[in-house]
């Protein structure tokens, strides 16, 4: 039973108790008072009338006239004159009560007033006895009116009390609802914080749970930081912070072999010539600092630091991947500026930084791509300038010749509707957790993968339109097969678009049963604004039963402390941490730590990009809940 109902019942019971008690006391007191007054009246009037009759001649007619006059003016019920032997000589009486007082009330009250009696004398001789009884009807009416007035007052007081109680409970209920919601979040391992209510008891509860959430956040930050430090120690160059050669090559291979949008972009290779000479002239410490600054400058070429992927192939060669970057003309000036900044750090040394730029696309051969980079780098080295940049355009035919054709084709393809691919995500028992459903668009009479059109979608800011079309297609697919659970990718541009969120919720509210079968995934590259938008999206769609996940989680795992209160269902670990895990103890340690930390929050961990059975077996041994990739097949 709700708090407001309990309070209402308590008020009603209290008012009824007060009403019954007040009514009983009032009616009893009133009845006693009236009985006393009527008894005195009966005795006084009987005595006065008997005295008057004693002084008159004992003529029956005269006595009857006197009794009638007294009866008509005194509001009596009965006046009777009896002789000495008890025989009735004269009697006047009124009819029974005929007012509007209910009979049950008269029976409950039941006045018990003795009749007034007096002796009539005839000289020294007794003539007879006079009996007088007053009418009680006015007393019934008076007490009935008192009861009605008292009941009316208590009804009014009850209504006012209930209204006040409702207002008070509503004031208590709002913070109570927040406290209950926070308790439910914590039970679901979403450690949220709330504004402390003004009610003392609720404030103490809220303070305790907020402290718990803060402690969990601190624990997550510490543990994820330890994991990140371990990952950096195992996978990054200790001098510059760039990825080791093997790790970078693994990430490059996994990207090129995937259908992810990041499989399209530009790759930059920079060589620091005469590194040994630099060490001799500048010293090891200054040279290391210079190389670290080079990695920093290369990282800043990415739109955000999280998207930069910098590797150190050997002592002097550094390589940078810029996913989704396609405009070489816009990149070259920024690249030259970054290289000049490094060259100016040692102006008297004659430092040379030949650089090569090559575009890459999905399913490119890694060896051929690196050979193209080496060829371009050789061209840059042969030039005499300190910062020469050689560019190799990718040898492929674009689907469309210009921006206008691309825009028109993309709008038409989105209007026509995407096609969804199905890639199973399985658990250790080969049960399907859900299906990954990347979108395909029909462009140039063929269904193209995301890596082909996502850069252009981003360039024309069509992400919200595409994502809405994908959700509509997924709902259409679920209509024919409602038992499936589908994973849908949402872009950062979409979740930060308020109109998209409103449209998405409106779309899902029309089919709430199917909405429960959708899992929405966002990239792990989330800035502060995107995290806030994701939190709002989860709050808006969680009542519909939707699930939420983060994909391509790698270095971004340190942000888990910022995401612990969102209510994530799962994290997908990036394929760069998965490839070759069965032969790498370091990778197993990292993934095991990530899985343990996620499990403490009730978050499932799914591995991406699994290519062979040995990887799959190793992943389930270290605690991963699910896996997907080319090597995952349903039995």
Question: What general form does the structure show?
Answer: rod-shaped
Sheet having the most strands: 8 strands, mixed
How far apart lie the N and C ends?
A: 50 Å
What percentage of amino acids are in beta strands? Answer: 15-25%
Supply Rg: 47 Å
Mean model confidence by pLDDT: 83
Distinct helical segment count: 20
Structural class: alpha/beta
Q: How many DSSP-defined strands?
A: 20
Q: What share of the residues lie within helices?
A: 40-55%
Low-confidence segments, given as residue ranges, are: none
Strand order of the largest sheet: 11-12-15-16-17-18-19-20
Describe this structure in words.
The protein has 635 residues and is an alpha/beta fold. The protein is built from 20 helices and 20 strands. The strands form 4 sheets. Strands 11-12-15-16-17-18-19-20 form an 8-stranded mixed β-sheet, covered by helices on one side. A 5-stranded mixed β-sheet has the order 6-7-5-8-9, with helices on both faces. Strands 2-1-4-3 form a 4-stranded antiparallel β-sheet. Helix 4 (137-187) packs parallel to helix 5 and helix 5 (200-235) runs antiparallel to helix 19. The longest helix has 52 residues, at 3-54. The model has no long low-confidence stretch (mean pLDDT 83). Residues 170-221 form the HAMP domain. Residues 263-393 form the GGDEF domain.
């Amino acid at each position: 039973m709700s708090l407001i109902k309990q309070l209402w019942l308590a008020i009603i019971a209290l008012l009824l108790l007060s009403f019954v008690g007040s009514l009983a006391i009032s009616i009893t007191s009133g009845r006693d008072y009236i009985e006393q007054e009527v008894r005195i009246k009966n005795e006084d009037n009987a005595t006065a009338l008997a005295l008057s009759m004693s002084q008159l001649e004992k003529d029956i007619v005269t006595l009857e006239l006197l009794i009638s006059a007294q009866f008509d003016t005194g509001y009596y019920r009965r006046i009777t004159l009896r002789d000495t032997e008890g025989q009735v000589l004269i009697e006047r009486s009124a009819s029974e009560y005929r007012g509007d007082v209910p009979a049950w009330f008269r029976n409950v009250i039941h006045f018990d007033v003795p009749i007034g009696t007096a002796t009539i004398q005839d000289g020294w001789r007794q003539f007879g006895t006079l009996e007088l009884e007053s009418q009680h009807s006015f007393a019934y009416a008076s007490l009935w009116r008192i009861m009605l007035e008292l009941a009316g007052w208590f009804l009014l007081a009850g209504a006012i009390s209930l209204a006040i109680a409702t207002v008070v409970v509503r004031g208590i209920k709002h913070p109570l609802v927040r406290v209950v919601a926070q308790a439910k979040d914590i039970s679901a391992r979403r450690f949220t914080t709330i504004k402390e209510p003004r009610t003392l008891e609720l404030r103490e509860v809220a303070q305790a749970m907020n402290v718990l959430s803060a402690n969990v956040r601190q624990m997550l930050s510490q543990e994820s930081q330890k994991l990140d430090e371990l990952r950096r120690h195992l996978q990054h160059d200790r001098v510059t912070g760039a990825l080791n050669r093997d790790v970078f090559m693994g990430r490059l291979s996994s990207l090129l072999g995937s259908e992810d949008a990041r499989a399209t972009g530009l790759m930059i290779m920079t060589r620091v010539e005469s590194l040994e000479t630099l060490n001799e002239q500048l010293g090891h410490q200054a040279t290391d600092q210079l190389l670290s600054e080079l990695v920093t400058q290369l990282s800043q070429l990415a739109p955000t630091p999280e998207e930069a992927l910098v590797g150190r192939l050997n002592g002097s060669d550094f390589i940078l991947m810029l996913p989704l970057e396609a405009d070489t003309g816009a990149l070259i000036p920024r690249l030259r500026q970054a290289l000049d900044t490094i060259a100016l750090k040692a102006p008297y040394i004659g430092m040379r930084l030949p650089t090569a730029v090559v575009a890459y696309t999905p399913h490119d051969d890694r060896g051929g791509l690196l050979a193209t980079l080496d060829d371009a780098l050789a061209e840059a080295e042969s030039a005499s300038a300190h910062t020469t940049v050689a560019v190799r355009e990718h040898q492929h035919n674009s689907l469309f010749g210009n921006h206008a054709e691309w825009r028109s084709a993309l709008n038409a393809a989105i209007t026509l509707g995407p096609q969804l691919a199905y890639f199973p995500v399985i658990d250790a028992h080969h049960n399907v957790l859900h299906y990954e459903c990347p979108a395909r668009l029909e462009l140039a009479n063929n269904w193209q993968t995301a890596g082909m059109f996502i850069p252009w979608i981003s360039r024309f800011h069509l992400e919200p339109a595409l994502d809405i079309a994908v959700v509509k297609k997924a709902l259409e697919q679920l209509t024919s097969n409602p038992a499936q659970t589908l994973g849908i990718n949402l872009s950062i541009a979409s979740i930060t678009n308020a109109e998209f969120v409103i449209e998405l919720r409106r779309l899902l509210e029309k089919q709430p049963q199917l909405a429960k079968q959708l899992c929405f995934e966002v990239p792990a590259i989330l800035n502060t604004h995107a995290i806030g938008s994701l939190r709002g999206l989860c709050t808006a769609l969680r009542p519909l039963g939707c699930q939420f996940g983060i994909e391509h989680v790698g270095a971004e795992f340190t942000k888990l402390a910022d995401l612990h209160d969102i209510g994530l269902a799962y994290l997908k670990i990036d394929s760069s941490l998965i490839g070759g895990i069965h032969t790498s103890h370091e990778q197993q340690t990292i993934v095991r730590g990530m899985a343990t930390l996620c499990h403490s929050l009730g978050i499932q961990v799914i591995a991406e990009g699994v290519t062979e059975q040995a990887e799959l077996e190793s992943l389930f041994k270290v605690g991963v809940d699910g896996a997907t990739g080319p090597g995952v097949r349903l039995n």
